[in-house]
Amino acid sequence: YRVMYGRYTQELGVYAREEAARIREDGRHRSPPLKLLEYEKGRCVRCRICAVHCQRFLMSRVGEDWIFLILLGLVMALVSFVMDFCIALLLQAQKWMSGGLDSNVILQYLAWVTYPVVLISFSAGFTHIVAPQAAGSGIPEMKTILRGVVLKEYLTLKTFVAKVVGLTCALGSGLPLGKEGPFVHIASLCAALLCKFMSFFGGIYENESRNTEMLAAACAVGVGCCFAAPIGGVLFSIEVTSTFFAVRNYWRGFFAATFSAFIFRVLAVWNRDEETITALFKTRFRLDFPFDLQELPAFAVIGIASGFGGALFVYLNRLIVQFMRKQKTINKFLMKKRLLYPALVTLLISTLSFPPGFGQFMAGQLTQKETLVSFFDNRTWTKQGMTEDFNYDSHSAAWKHPQANVFVILVIFIVMKFWMSALATTLPVPCGAFMPVFVIGAAFGRLVGESMAAWFPEGINTDGIIYPIVPGGYAVVGAAALSGAVTHTVSTAVIVFELTGQISHILPIMIAVILANAVAQSLQPSIYDSIIRIKKLPYLPELGWGHHEKYNIRVEDIMVRDVRYITLNSTYRDLHEILLIGNLKTVALVESAESMILLGSIERAQLQALLTQHLSRERRLEFIRDRADAERKRVSVVSTPSSEEGGQKVNHEVRFQISTEESSFTPARPISPKPLKPALKRTSTAEKNIEIPTSPHDSGIGLKNLLCARPQTDAMERVCVCVCVCVFQEDPDAEDDMTLGEIEEWEEQQLDEQVNFNSCKIDPAPFQLVERTSLHKTHTIFSLLGLDHAYVTSIGRLIGVVSLRELRKAIEGSMTVKGVKVRPPLASFRDSGTSGTSSESEATELHKLWDRHTSISIPREHQPNTSDSDEKSQ
Amino acid sequence: YRVMYGRYTQELGVYAREEAARIREDGRHRSPPLKLLEYEKGRCVRCRICAVHCQRFLMSRVGEDWIFLILLGLVMALVSFVMDFCIALLLQAQKWMSGGLDSNVILQYLAWVTYPVVLISFSAGFTHIVAPQAAGSGIPEMKTILRGVVLKEYLTLKTFVAKVVGLTCALGSGLPLGKEGPFVHIASLCAALLCKFMSFFGGIYENESRNTEMLAAACAVGVGCCFAAPIGGVLFSIEVTSTFFAVRNYWRGFFAATFSAFIFRVLAVWNRDEETITALFKTRFRLDFPFDLQELPAFAVIGIASGFGGALFVYLNRLIVQFMRKQKTINKFLMKKRLLYPALVTLLISTLSFPPGFGQFMAGQLTQKETLVSFFDNRTWTKQGMTEDFNYDSHSAAWKHPQANVFVILVIFIVMKFWMSALATTLPVPCGAFMPVFVIGAAFGRLVGESMAAWFPEGINTDGIIYPIVPGGYAVVGAAALSGAVTHTVSTAVIVFELTGQISHILPIMIAVILANAVAQSLQPSIYDSIIRIKKLPYLPELGWGHHEKYNIRVEDIMVRDVRYITLNSTYRDLHEILLIGNLKTVALVESAESMILLGSIERAQLQALLTQHLSRERRLEFIRDRADAERKRVSVVSTPSSEEGGQKVNHEVRFQISTEESSFTPARPISPKPLKPALKRTSTAEKNIEIPTSPHDSGIGLKNLLCARPQTDAMERVCVCVCVCVFQEDPDAEDDMTLGEIEEWEEQQLDEQVNFNSCKIDPAPFQLVERTSLHKTHTIFSLLGLDHAYVTSIGRLIGVVSLRELRKAIEGSMTVKGVKVRPPLASFRDSGTSGTSSESEATELHKLWDRHTSISIPREHQPNTSDSDEKSQ
């Protein structure tokens, strides 16, 4: 169902770009009429000229990147601001409701609980009805899309609406959910929609590789305008979504994210929320002496603990999803009542955080934002001497319980929020995990900070001056470390600087984040990779580093040796068999079965088109006409009545057509595919040399039988069976008077003909690897070029093929999740046999080629007749 | 002289890695003796066992990346700290000298001037003698090296010593020079040397692609420990040195740079320079209200002006270099007296900055660091009400001149420093341009800030509260903007945050930096690209963005159609002619001249080896022996005396061997090449299937004549002519009794034989492009894979070749420095002819192949004898 593209569609993208440029060029050439207009008189004409000029100027400008980026930034800033505003309203409404009912605890509880349940249910229901793919974070999908996989339904207007509305409701419910991941998705949606919109003005937008670049910038904008953190946004989006990053895109990201963050904060100033542009969670730590060297071990401890915590979070999250999936009875029940699961989870979480209930032990009345502000506060909550005269502001007061210690409350908060967040992020609503994890990390940091403050109540003595400990600094470190561990990124450090507006703790934060990453990366995949695995998205896993045994695996160990190929002198029957076996996306074209010299690759759909065309009704009618002509001639000679064998006519028949791939090359397209990438739209013009049969009744009946027999192995692919009942219109100039038997006979006969590749689009240079290419290098090349498969050749001879699947297997084989390293059997073999054998085999290979060549050249030298024919053909 | 590597040496790198792994594996298998040892008794043995265990553990650990990165960070932090210490000492000495002589102005002047002249002369002389390649920034060279070009003399111990000593002296002189660029180079040198050193322990270090990864991390470390800015360092190094960045390297950079910055700052704390770890140029701006929205236009003005200024700086710098080069008389004179130019420039600059002289109008007594501290100061220098009670500290006092206005002094400072910096950075000493530009930018920002403070003396009124203007904030913005404009980077913003320890001005800084970049990038290349062009380093220029006409250029427009190739049935004479023509690095191997099917590529040196081996003395002696055997048989039958034609014996002759490439494959290596990349060392083992003749006298005399005739077109390549006078030792088991005429005849005869490629290393899958690949895509692929050349194929047939040179020409042709865009003639042609023609030509191409194929298959079908022989050979 998802078409992976490699080299080929990129070519098409380039083609589309050229085509667009040509169209625009044409537009320019059409300018003379304007000059003619100028000779006419009258005011109206001048106005029109002016308007045309303006329009043309706008047109030429609209194609520029920076216009697009500014628009994107602007739109996203507005979206972010409006959403924040709505979320704040929703949260206030909850407080107001439960606050207004403080006379009756039960009523208060009902109000407190019903509100989020309704919101989450609405969010889940809305998302499910409008666009189910809007659920979840969106970063895993963006990662997959930027890898080069086309997941088109993830970038539609419907998804945009579902994501924005769903996210607003989900966050308004007060559950521990984040908005970072969804914002990355929303920004990408925005970019994709803007691209579509802008393509009305200039053709340059209809280009795939440019769209990918814009999507990369959009990811940065998403993070940037979510946290008003342009630099952190760019870095985070790079780390999270890319494998290889083009530095020339860097600029785009910075530009758009900065603009977006700027507008986002300016809106806040205009709305009188802020006096001027400052950070979202402004801190006021000391500048002159932010921390002491002796505090560094504590920061390191936070980092290491966060690493374990982050890995645990990812594990817990996956465990919950897998548990829900495995329990078939639960699963079935939940499938039927889709809104029940979200509602139950919300009920559980909001019951536990009900402020007069258990919530009093975990500051249940605070929103995420308030919690963070209280964590990042300078003042300690424990210091004995100051506890009394410490005028609690509303936020910090939540942490002061008459019965319980601050430490106990913090521990309860951390533990409860931990599983709550892991649970809440599995809900089928648009939600991210970054912010909840960030809050938990801050809580943990605060806990350590408060402990340190309790341990050194007088502060730390340095050179005679005593500096008190700032627990807020620890909270900042903890937040960066835990969110870094969960997402496997270092740039959370930068996000934290931008969020707090202070960079004074740079070294502790960097140290903690790096330690947390080191621990978490060795234990679990990142939350996004984990979701990619859960969702089984077609993504190439990352190579861990330091796994030296991967250098020992070579392409020859993992490649599929049994390559399907067609030769230049294949018959249509061979072609047909190839199409029956398996579900290859492309088929290799070799010179001959003996030489196996790789000439190119042909897409499956192209071959289908070839076959369909060859067995088409037109050709059959032509055949009938020719036969009739011959008959007539014969009749004119022999003069006997023509053969009118009684047989069922094939005019009214039901034909099946199965297409397993939604390729744009589908020969007969009953469901018109709406490609996301506008470049694909243009492929039809690109293929104008192929006469694609446009109505489904062109395919022969023999073809029908054969295509239906095709085994449907891949369960992932949605097979769209299109039953096209074609009531035949009377064709005026041709009469199809063949019987079924005759048709089959004709088709059998046609199948034995040699394939004519002239009207077929061949990829003349598919990517090639060598047997001895290492896994490491193969992975790099696949990631770099976004390949789907590569042929393995040895001195021009095709000997195997490696696709993403083999590569993924090999990587996961050599590095399983649990750290058990398995080497493919062949790799160990080679260690004992030295390289001498392989170089020998190389020589043998060449020998073969050599021998073959000389044997070919022998007739040329000794038999002048064949060499003549050879030369003539050149 | 510089060997560019593409795919092939990477293969070898992989091979080396495997080889190393194998050796280590072997080492492990050799463990049993240890166990045997345990059965022996005695204390000493136990100690030994323990030692061996420890050693083994260390060995296994030493191979890990993080050990390497920590070591690198540690070493670089120490180097940075010690250098800073020495530079501070040198600067103090100058002040002390001129301060001690304040009784006599002339003596003071002499002391002030002589000191930097001596230091710079020493630096230039030392650099010139020890390692001339240490001069200059080093970033352009690193950029080229990371692009994949081997510039081996840039990464030696000598260069390291020259760079460190030279840089210390140069910076100690007080000239406006920076240390950022050289630090990037020093860090890379450190990494290269550490790699070499570590390879004594574990073989895993002998790997090229790993070294490149380490070099990328080292660049980050260089910036990181120079400014104690780990994040900015990583980003700056990415922006400056990479085109495509592997995100998996990101982590490495962060890790090493953070560790390095940490140690660097901890050393300062231990040295009692600082109380705790803080930023280098700590600022104390207001946190609550850093700036007002109404100030933003001023920041934008700083950004735009900095953009123009940055472009002007790059232009001026290049102009000076080109002027010095063009003036041949000056040039000649300077070539003779190498130290004169630096001395004169130093004299000029230090005379102008002499504090009691003109220096009083440009704060000449302040060092760079003091200047920056004074610029970043919170307090305004102009505010009327406070001028009197403003207790000037020593630094700010320098800007207060009794006669001149602050504005005048700032303007003089900016103008003077501008040309001084541009001039000073052309000196042949290790020096960077970042810091001087940073200071000028700060001065400009301060100027704007002071102007704003003078314009709004009461500060800006917002909501009734009046906030005074902070000129230091403007200075920070200006510094980031100008350095960003000169280097074409956005990450200077991050460096500034880390340098000042404050992030409150994030939005103004980002806006200014982006505007400055936009302006500067449209006017001039970055300073590093400018130096790359001046030095003519083999680097691929970057594609500007938004140049749509590049989408119209295709590979077929720029490729070289006249490809040199050899076929499977080439004779040694063909091979020989190929070697004579031009200086190709690799030669394409095609199936036959008719089919032109590309089978692979062979390196020039391999072909030379083949030829040399074929005409070697051994083979000749064998021939003589065979002839003698035949003779003897004939003698035994006919019994006539053997032919003893009187001729000069060839035992004592002078043979020439010219090798224009320092390839490791050089058949006879009189000068043993010292490859930087340790991977190359191992190639000799990789090539053990090639019998490389080890002494120069193996080459025949005919070969000599022919090789000498080779035209030496490329002036860039240093031709090392090695005259090897080989006094022949008496060979016991063979006697070379052929005359020169006989030898020539024999060689002529040998040259007509078909080449036997069996012992030749063929790259079986050279990179292939298609005719219609766009320039944009070609550029991407070349940058991504670090290619040197790529073959253009059409359905397997070789039709052209594109090398870096063609690509560079095409890019520079379509986008010259001055902004004039030239399209290749063919690109405009294609616009009129639609895509129909090209698809037609594609079909024709296939037709040909098809026809050729059928003509080949005809004899197989009709003549069973040939097809039999064909099948047998398979």
UniProtKB/TrEMBL annotation, chains A, B:
Domain of life: Eukaryota
Biased composition (Basic and acidic residues): 844-874
Membrane topology (UniProt): Multi-pass membrane protein
GO molecular function (one): voltage-gated chloride channel activity
Sorted UniProt keywords: CBS domain, Chloride, Chloride channel, Ion channel, Ion transport, Membrane, Repeat, Transmembrane, Transmembrane helix, Transport
Gene3D superfamilies in UniProt: CBS-domain, Clc chloride channel
Subcellular localization(s) per the UniProt record: Membrane
Keyword Nucleotide-binding: no
Disordered: annotated segments: 826-874
InterPro entries reported in the protein's UniProt record: CBS_dom_sf, Cl-channel_core, Cl_channel_volt-gated, ClC
Protein name per its UniProtKB record: Chloride voltage-gated channel 2
Protein source organism: Cyprinus carpio carpio
Lineage of origin: Eukaryota, Metazoa, Chordata, Craniata, Vertebrata
